[in-house]
Structure formats: C-alpha cells, structure tokens
Amino acid sequence: MRILATGGAGYVGSAVCRQLLKRGYEVFAYDNLGKGFRQALPDGCLIEGDLDDYSLLSKVLRERRIDVVMHFAASIAVGESVEQPRLYYRNNIANSLNLLEAMLDADVKRILFSSTAAVYAPIAEGSLSENDAIAPASPYAVTKHTIEQMIRDFSHAYGLNYRILRYFNACGGSNGGQYGEAHDPETHLIPLVLQVPLGQREFIGVFGDDYNTPDGTCVRDYIHVDDLADAHIRAVESFDTNETSKAKAGSIYNIGTGTGNSVLEVIRATEEVVGGKIPIKMLNRRAGDTDRLVAGAERLRKELGWKPKYDNLRDVIATAWQWHKSHPNGY
Ligand code: UFG
Question: 25: which of 20, 154, 156, 158 fits an S-S bond (Cβ 3.0–4.6 Å)?
C-alpha cells in the first residue's frame, strides 16, 4: 500500500509515518513544515508542499500512485480557534476540501481522517461511544466535524472509503522519548507542566476549577502517541481486509484508553515522575473547553483488535519527560 500522510512531519503524523515505514509501507509525508519538523522523519519520505497547492497535490497523488491518504494536517489548538476562527475554517475546512477534490481527480478512494473527541457533547460521567451526541464547543471542533461530514457525503456520492479516527488527548514521547511534542506556541497540558521542572516556567496555570468534575478541573483521556499510531496501522490495514473484517467501507472509531484524568491528577502524576513539587496557579476557564472527554473505545478493540500498551498515566508522562529533558527546546 502506498500512503500519503498530510501533516506527516507533525507530532502524531510523524509517529504514524515512522511505524508505517518500519512495517514496510511506502510512505510519503506531505507537509509544509509550518508546524512539522524534518527531523521527526527518516530521510527521503518528506514532500514539502502546501495543502492549498492543488496542482502539486494532484501531481503527487498521481505520480506516487497513492492508494490511501492519511489526513493529519490541521490547526489544532482549541483556544486559538476561538480567537482566530478564520484560520481554522481556511486551514482545516478549505484545505480538506481541496484535498478531497484532488483525491477524486486522481482516483484515490481511501482516506483515514484525524478527527477529535472535541466533536462530542460532553457527558457528566462514563465514556463516549461513537454514536453519542455531537455538539462541537469550539470553532476547531466545528471544523473537524464539518470535515467528517464532507467525507461521509463524498463517500455516499463518489464511493470514497473512509476511516474517521476521533482522537482523545494524544501525548507522550514516541519510541521511548526519542521523538515528541514540539508545538510553538505550546498549548497542551503535559508539555507545559513539564516546563516547570525544566526551569522554563515558574508554575502551571490551571484553566478553571469550577467544572462539573470530582475535583472541579477538566477531565481528559490521555492516550500515548504510539498507541494512537498503532490504531492507525490497524485502521489502514482494515481497508485491505474489508470483506473479512468487521470494519465497514466507512467507519468511525474513538481512540482513547477509557480512563479519565483531571488536570490536577496530571500535575500530581507529573510530580511523581519528575520527583519534585510543581506550583499551580488557578486561572479562569479557557474558552472552548468542556468538562469531561473520556473514550469508549470498544469498537476499536473489537473490530480492529487494538489494545493500548500504555495504561498508566505515569508511564506515559515518563516518556514525555524523557523527550523534553533531552530536547528542552524541541527539535
Ligand atoms: N490546561 C490547563 N492549563 C494549561 C493547558 C491546558 O489547565 O496551561 C487544561 C485545559 O483547559 C484542558 C486540559 O488541560 O482542560 C487539556 O488541555 P490540552 O490543551 O492539552 O488539550 P485539549 O483537551 O484542549 O485538546 C486536545 C487537542 C485537541 C483535541 C482534544 C480532544 O489539542 O486537538 O485534545 O480531547 F481535540
């Protein structure tokens, strides 16, 4: 199978590309390096390009005889999307439409799309299944849900075969901490908490302690990036075995551990990993956040035989610590 990964030099995209290459797939990472890093990928698989460059996209899809597109490229910060929605509608929706049209023109009929748990209406307890109510709370989540809908409509009208993967909170250092998160600016909780023991910040700000959760801080499902990558491998392989696999032509999967942790629990677990106190400052809520997002990933387990290797938050944070300690300024 020949795979094109948009955003393949990013945190999740590169983790998936590296696993695919290890397993012998032909992989091309299509990335403009606006947020991604050449160093996150082995030599030779990067194609530098913009998603709004229709002619380059078409050329690459045809000339590399691509069978499957994995669509990772997107703007991903919930808070930023509230401040700058136009960026999100342009980068996420307009560019995805460009990609889908280029795929149709080049007769590429399989797509794996990186969606998000943020599309769901939050629930007070328990975990979310793929059939639960949708209520995107931020422009970011709206764009992701709109792209899901575009893909479903294209599937219905043009026979596009798809896997939509709804990620919960991707985190951790990949390959034991050899690779990791390097966002600029960083907005994600675990890398920001780790900046305290690195001496790069004095405290971690906690965005709200008045949520409807046991300790009042938001609960999320933190999934290790290599487990997330493994789910992609299984999803892409299910395209080939459609007749025998339980996956349908179009399937949606949650990817998460099924365990929720609050912001305060993440901070405490990090203190254990780094062996020191992390000062906290309570701040106002961040726009676009929701109380609780925890995955019900039974479908992924049952249909694709997926099982996370990391089921303990401390072990996940230890791999992130390994990465940030050895790369305090990113790549
Ligand atoms: N948080 C803080 N302080 C910080 C940073 C984050 O308290 O300095 C809190 C947030 O308010 C949130 C939690 O930590 O409650 C996690 O925040 P992240 O920014 O790390 O992650 P999000 O849950 O906002 O979003 C991430 C991805 C999205 C994805 C979502 C799915 O960035 O792309 O997970 O759950 F959609």
Answer: 20
For 13-63, how does the pLDDT look when each residue is reduced to its tens digit (9 = 90+)?
Answer: 999 999 999 999 999 999 999 999 999 999 999 999 999 999 999 999 999
* Residue that is written with structure tokens 């551990």 in the block: 257
pTM of the model: 0.96
149 touches 100 (CB < 8 A): no
Question: Phi/psi at 245 (nearest 5 deg)?
Answer: -80, 160
Query: Can you list the domains of the chain with their CATH numbers?
Result: 2-170+223-255 (3.40.50.720), 173-220+257-295+310-326 (3.90.25.10)
Catalytic site includes residue 140:
yes
pLDDT tens string 20-34: 999 999 999 999 999
Q: Check 30, 88, 120, 140 and give the catalytic one.
A: 140
- 185 prior amide bond cis, ω within 30: yes
